[in-house]
Amino acid sequence: MNTQRYDQLYDLPFRVERQVHGYAVVVRVAGEVDALTVPQMKHEIAVGLALATPPAPVVVDLTEVDFFAAAGLNELHRWHLAAKATGVALRVVACHRHVLRPFEASGLDQEIQPCATLAEALLVPSPRGVRRFAVR
To answer: What was the pLDDT predicted at 136?
Structure first.
């Protein structure tokens, strides 16, 4: 189901899209992340993880999220563990307090350290230095 139809069907202030940046995959989320919208985010992260090639990360960009509920935290934690098992890093981009605070309160920030920018999230350390995956 495409994002526009999902928004129209449920009339939710929510949007999610997936973009490929070289071997990395970026899942951009906007609006409210809660129990009603997390299934669509889950789907896009699952596809992103299937498409990603290590050491390139799967990045979940939450910079346009207005509300972030526990359902979103739980889903990110599940996918962090799944990504780790496959050798792919799951990174999160978040810069607003209403997203960062739930990360801190739950302790998830100890497992997934939120990045301030997409460019930062796409950096990957390698034996020959740091590699940046392309950002459009």
So the answer is: 46
The one-letter amino acid code at 1 reads M
77/72 Cα distance (integer angstroms): 9
Q: How many other CB atoms sit within 10 Å of the CB of residue 31?
A: 16
Question: Residue 129 carries which side chain, given as an amino acid letter?
Answer: G
Q: pTM for the complete prediction? A: 0.85
Is the four-CA dihedral 54, 123, 58, 24 of positive or negative sign? negative
CATH topology of domain 3-132: Transcription Regulator spoIIAA (3.30.750)
Q: Nearest-CA neighbor of 108 among 55, 72, 63?
A: 72
How are strands ordered across the β-sheet holding 24-33? 14-21, 24-33, 58-68, 90-93
108, 74 contact by CB (below 8 A)? no
- From the first residue on, what is the mean pLDDT of each consecutive set of 10 residues in the chain (136 residues)? 48 86 93 95 96 91 96 96 94 95 94 94 75 53
- Three-state DSSP class for residue 70: helix
- How far apart are the C-alpha atoms of 11 and 14, rounded to whole Å? 9
Phi, psi of 18 (to 5 degrees): -120, 135
